[in-house]
Amino acid sequence: MVTVDDVEAALENVIDPELGLSFPELGLIYGISVDGGHVHVTFTLTSPGCPIGPQVIEQIDEFVSELEGVESVESEMTFTPPWTAERMSEDAKFALGY
């Protein structure tokens, strides 16, 4: 059975094309829930005007669907609460000079 940790590891492949870092590293993944083979991922973007939303949804679906036991993937984009740099991992902050 797929776990939240499995999904988070798969999401490491979802890369912000401008920053070159993964969505989990950037703190853009707000939530992951797994109910049997059904996975729900809540994410945000660095700004509401960012045009990569559809691309991110496709990548989340692609990488999470590859996990054994996943039957469906639902992605939800939210801007509440707004993303801030404080959500980034220490490694991401270092890489971006924060």
TrEMBL record:
It comes from the Bacteria. Gene3D superfamilies: Fe-S cluster assembly (FSCA). It holds the Pfam family FeS_assembly_P. InterPro entries: Fe-S_Maturation_MIP18, FSCA_dom_sf, MIP18-like. Signal peptide: none annotated. Residues 5-74 form the MIP18 family-like domain. This is Aromatic ring hydroxylase.
